[in-house]
């Protein structure tokens, strides 16, 4: 479908209308910029629009996983559950789009194919699959960190006659699995959530597991009205704590809690155990910050991993199945998966765990799937096989900077960014929640980065500047620091998507900033001093103001 955008010349193009894109539109408009957003989906919400599979649910408490920029919004909106399901979060995104009148700047059902920088006009030329050809001073990729699904590629899949579903592209008409023989491939957070729900319905469910995940009960429940009003009164303090915290999720037992101050190794066994029990009773992601060094010290990590395995074993009837569900890598180096009755599903007679290390997937047939030498007949298969994290969404757009250099080619040679928001040679192009951004609450990070970008643009205007790009020296230092920090943690100790390991051929590198949000903010602040982190220019001049 071809459509007219508001104008073919704008100040800013935003790609993606998830939580980051929505807020970017809002901030751009507040700054008096003309803005055009393009979104592939039919509606706003990004990840919460696409991932509508049964069981999809947030695992950071909603009062923390929500916008902080509008005090009115915080007070008006009521979350029904501690951890809302996908439909409620999607409603919230739609409410925000309506309340701040953001839709008029969004073209839906429109995929951005290319963004090319034109050096002579110092503008980005953005083209879409709907025929748009738009010129923009600034180009903002709000394309998401975990949004580019890995397409399932299995021998014979094209011959399989049954139903096929991808958790991250779930149909809006809910499929029925009642009495059917269903397989789920993938046991990360998405697989775990969908398995828990499909196990209630399917005649037989086959869970094809390659790597088990560390799980913890989510401990979801409805929000009591008394608690909701208490949190609303405490919002200011909560936001301050999040802002000053490492990762932006801070609540324990739905209440304000102090940040960790001790190593797991400097307390008694009894004290450590009590703290882990407390975190398991609280649920969600709370074990991340029981102690200061769970992700820094392998001995400390082992105490938590042992505890988590003990908790897994307790919930399973069959010790042999329990062992297959127990991970053996350092905990938290792959995402912890909060769940509701996931492990209990394996106590049901209709659920079978297939360990792909014992019997690898051979191929699909017309009737099902062959694992090892056994054919399993299936009515449906669900792929929860993950994403090309961080770089994938931008790699799928033909982005070209100075001298026609392709961003994808640059990144294939080695991931580079400045402040996890831009890279030299791509003037006036920024991304939000993208490569080298902090491991931090994504909605709050989007707010910070959109504010930062808007402030840079305002400063440029005040200083009569037209073009900004990363200073290559500052960028090298940021990349070095990001890698040094990553290498000082335990993340490199397992195969995980944080290091790019889930994509064959992707260069192994730290894709996230693991130095915590306060230290990240410091880098951002320092870069702004006298433009030291950037190269800036006015008119056609490309003046280097920074060393
Ligand atoms: P994921 O964590 O990357 O999990 C993908 C799963 O698919 C892994 O178990 C992987 O096994 C398996 N897999 C991939 N290719 C396979 C193959 N060819 N054969 C067999 N198994 C294969 O992806 P995800 O579960 O979609 O989660 C991604 C991230 O999204 C999460 O970590 C989280 O950050 C976010 N998320 C959050 C929530 C929430 O808030 N509650 C829910 C869902 C997702 P291997 O590990 O062995 O490769």
Written account of the structure:
- The chain is built from 15 helices and 20 strands.
- The chain has 547 residues and is of the alpha/beta class.
- Among the domains are: 7-44 and 102-148 and 389-543, FAD/NAD(P)-binding domain, CATH 3.50.50.60; 150-213 and 335-386, 3-Layer(bba) Sandwich (FAD/NAD(P)-binding domain), CATH 3.50.50.60.
- Strands 1, 2, 3, 4, 5, 6, 17 and 18 form an 8-stranded mixed beta sheet that branches. It has a 5-stranded parallel beta sheet with strand order 7-16-8-9-12, covered by helices on one side. Strands 13-14-15 form a 3-stranded antiparallel beta sheet, with no helix packed on it.
- β1, α1 and β2 form a beta-alpha-beta unit.
- It starts with 8 loop residues before the first strand and ends in a 10-residue tail after the last strand.
Produce a short descriptive summary.
The chain is an alpha/beta fold.
Question: Can you tag this structure with a few keywords?
Answer:
547 residues; alpha/beta; FAD/NAD(P)-binding domain; 8-stranded mixed beta sheet; 5-stranded parallel beta sheet; 15 helices; 31% helix; 17% strand; globular; disordered C terminus; binds NADP nicotinamide-adenine-dinucleotide phosphate
Helix content: 25-40%
The value of Rg in angstroms is: 24 Å
CATH topology of the domain at 7-44 and 102-148 and 389-543: FAD/NAD(P)-binding domain
Strand-residue fraction?
15-25%
Report, as a whole number of angstroms, the end-to-end distance. Answer: 48 Å
Q: What is the number of strand segments?
A: 20
CATH superfamily of the domain at 7-44 and 102-148 and 389-543: FAD/NAD(P)-binding domain
Instruction: Give average pLDDT, whole number.
Output: 96
**Low-pLDDT stretches:** 541-547
What small molecules accompany the polymer chains?
Answer: NADP nicotinamide-adenine-dinucleotide phosphate
CATH class of the domain at 7-44 and 102-148 and 389-543: Alpha Beta
CATH architecture of the domain at 7-44 and 102-148 and 389-543: 3-Layer(bba) Sandwich
What summary fits the major beta sheet?
A: 8 strands, mixed
Q: What is the count of DSSP helices, taking H or I runs of 4+ residues?
A: 15
Secondary structure class reads alpha/beta
Overall body shape? globular
């Amino acid at each position: 479908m071809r459509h007219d955008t508001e104008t073919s010349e704008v100040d800013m193009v935003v790609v993606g209308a998830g939580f980051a894109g929505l807020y970017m539109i809002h901030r751009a408009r507040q700054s008096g910029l003309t803005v055009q957003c393009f979104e592939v989906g039919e509606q706003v919400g990004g990840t919460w629009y696409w991932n509508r599979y049964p069981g999809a649910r947030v695992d950071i408490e909603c009062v923390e996983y929500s916008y902080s920029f509008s005090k009115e919004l915080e007070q008006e909106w009521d979350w029904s559950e501690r951890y809302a399901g996908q439909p409620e979060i999607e409603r919230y995104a739609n409410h925000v789009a309506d309340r701040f009148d953001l839709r008029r700047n969004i073209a839906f059902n429109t995929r951005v194919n290319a963004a090319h920088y034109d050096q002579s006009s110092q503008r980005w030329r953005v083209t879409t699959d709907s025929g748009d050809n738009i010129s923009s001073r600034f180009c903002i990729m709000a394309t998401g960190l975990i949004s580019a699904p890995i397409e399932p590629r299995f021998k014979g899949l094209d011959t399989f006659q049954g139903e096929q579903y991808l958790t991250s592209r779930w149909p809006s008409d809910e499929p029925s699995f009642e009495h059917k023989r269903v397989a789920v491939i993938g046991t990360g957070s998405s697989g775990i959530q969908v398995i828990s729900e499909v196990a209630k319905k399917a005649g037989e469910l086959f869970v094809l597991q390659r790597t088990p995940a560390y799980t913890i009960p989510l401990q979801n429940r409805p929000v009591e009205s008394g608690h909701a009003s208490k949190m609303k009164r405490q919002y200011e303090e909560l936001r301050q704590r999040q802002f000053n915290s490492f990762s932006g999720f801070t609540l324990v037992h739905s209440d304000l809690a102090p940040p960790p101050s001790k190593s797991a190794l400097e307390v008694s066994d009894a004290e450590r155990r009590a703290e882990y029990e407390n975190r398991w009773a609280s649920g969600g992601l709370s074990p991340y910050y029981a102690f200061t060094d769970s992700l820094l010290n392998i001995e400390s990590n082992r105490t938590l991993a042992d505890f988590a395995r003990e908790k897994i074993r307790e919930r399973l009837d069959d010790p042999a199945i329990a062992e297959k569900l127990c991970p053996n890598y350092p905990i938290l180096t792959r995402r912890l998966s909060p769940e509701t009755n996931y492990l209990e599903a394996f106590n049901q007679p209709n659920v079978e765990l297939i360990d792909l290390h014992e019997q690898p997937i051979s191929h699909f047939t017309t009737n099902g799937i062959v694992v090892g030498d056994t054919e399993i007949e299936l009515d449906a298969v669900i792929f929860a096989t993950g994403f090309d994290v961080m770089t994938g969404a931008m790699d799928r757009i033909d982005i070209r900077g100075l001298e026609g250099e392709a961003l994808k080619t640059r990144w294939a040679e080695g991931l580079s960014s400045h402040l996890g928001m831009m890279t030299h040679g791509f003037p006036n192009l920024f991304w939000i929640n993208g490569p080298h951004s902090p491991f931090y609450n994504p909605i709050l990070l989007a707010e910070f980065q959109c504010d930062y970008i808007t402030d840079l643009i305002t400063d440029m205007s005040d200083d009569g500047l037209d073009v900004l790009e990363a200073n290559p020296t500052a960028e090298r230092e940021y990349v070095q620091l990001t890698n040094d920090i990553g290498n000082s943690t335990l993340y490199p100790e397992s195969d995980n998507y944080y290091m790019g390991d889930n994509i064959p051929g992707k260069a192994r590198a730290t894709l996230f900033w693991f130095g915590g949000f306060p230290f990240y903010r410091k880098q951002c602040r320092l870069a702004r001093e006298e433009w030291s982190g950037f190269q800036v220019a006015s008119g056609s001049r490309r003046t280097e103001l920074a060393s």
